Amino acid sequence: METREDLKSLLPFLPLVVRSSSLFWPSRVVEALKALSEGPDINNVNSGESLFAAISDIRNSLSLCAEPLAPSAPEGYSLFFDELMSRAESTKWFGEVLPALANLLLRMPSLLQSHYENADKFFNGVTNGVRTSLRLLGPQVAGIVFLSQELIAAFLACAFFCLFPVTDRGAKHLPTIDLDHLFEDLYENYSEKQENKIMCILHYFERICSCTPGGFVSFERKVLPWEQFPTGISYPGADFWNKSVAPLCSFEVHNLGFIEDQSNGALEVDFANKYLGGGALHRGCVQEEIRFMINPELIAGMLFLPRMEDNEAIEIVGAERFSNYRGEINKAFCGFSDLPKCNHYKSFFRNSGPQGAQSEEGDEDANVIPMNKYLVRGSDIIEDSDETCSWCQDHKHKNGIATGNWGCGAFGGDTEIKAIIQWLAASQALRPAIFYYTFGVEVLRNLDKVSQWIVSHEWTVGDLWNMLVEYSSQRLNGETNVGFFKWLLPSLC
Asked: Model confidence over 357-401: pLDDT tens digits?
């Protein structure tokens, strides 16, 4: 085990030790977890205060004292478990769920070891030699990791106990994954939203402890290489877009409802932070953070996926939803693309020859594993072959895109422009349709009319791109100050 490069890349960020080809907890941690697994009648852990004391004891056994937790985390654990949680819920949590989590953590070394022993052969060679084992998926390196839902559950239990080392995470541009800040923020700046975020995670723990899911989740880092290659798609320049003759895909506007409630089998798009998860484990409570709370298995990706650059996107398939709630073009192209190496893309450019832009001076070379050696559709894995290329060419069978107002909240993006950018990206990626959720934003009241007018004129991606460029130029030069829709169709808007 200790010779595996994949494990070595991640070992500094794991609380486990490896010796004699085995992964294990230090003996003192094993003793502490066994005590927790016996229940409150034996270990007297029956409150937020005593729970945090037990967490601190385990952390001391892992020599994590030099990596202090958020200062107000103890008060946050006490506030939630001793005041906000009902007596009935508290009794169940400390009597049933917490012991089950301790047992799950005891199994984490064996679960992880089994993962490494089976990851690259589990799918019977379908991956054509592409690694699927857990490792640090660093920037500019395309790759995929398959994790069992049981192993993910163990990782999230580890995050709840705040046992992941944090010293080197910042240097690798990795987001925080321990939950101490989630509880600290609850105490320091209480809000019902913050309380409900924690409730979502605890509900997830309750569910997996009573019935552990048996599926898998894939985490894929997708990269559009800066450098131009003879085949495939590299990072597009302006010529890529203005010369495209790809037809615009269907555009379906939904003024009500939520992306995650769509029933079209579409790829659901999360549009927010370059760090996976954004502020999910802090005070954030907008689109990305909410999604990570109702699908907590997404949090596992924060362990090994550093921040994304402009030419990167992350695709996650298989994460289960456990809760309900109320309440830039190349990056989009990278995320929306399914088979960027497929020759079918080549037919959508007026000029033949290599596609994409030349690498700009100063850009780093890309170390790219060939992308999309396999396609994931539910539980089916389809090998990349001539058959899949034909499937790609008949792209009406591909999944559509369910998306919304990308970067138009805290990041202040132009809602009209962001909608058009995503339409262009989805069309160039050969997606059959966009299902656009406006969330009732007033400025998008004419989005359906505008999109229908554009479709009726049979514009291509290049046509719409060039109109967007002309509008942007006029806006930059002070020649217009109206929105894109009104500029394009004054009488309609």
From this structure: 332 333 322 222 222 222 222 223 223 333 333 323 333 346 788
- In terms of Cβ atoms closer than 10 Å to its own Cβ (0-12, 13-18, 19+), residue 319 is buried
- What pLDDT, on the 0 to 100 scale, is given for residue 354? 31
Tell me the angle at which helices 98-118 and 149-160 cross, rounded to the nearest 10 degrees. 130
Distance, CA of 311 to chain centre: 15
Written as six digits, the tokens of 429 are 């990626």
pTM (2 d.p.)? 0.73
Residues 148-164 have pLDDT tens digits of 999 999 999 999 999 99
- Residue type (1 letter), 200: C
- CB atoms under 10 Å from CB of 42, counted, come to 11
Average pLDDT over every residue of 450-471: 92
| Residue 213 one-letter amino acid | P
d(CA 201, CA 407): 25
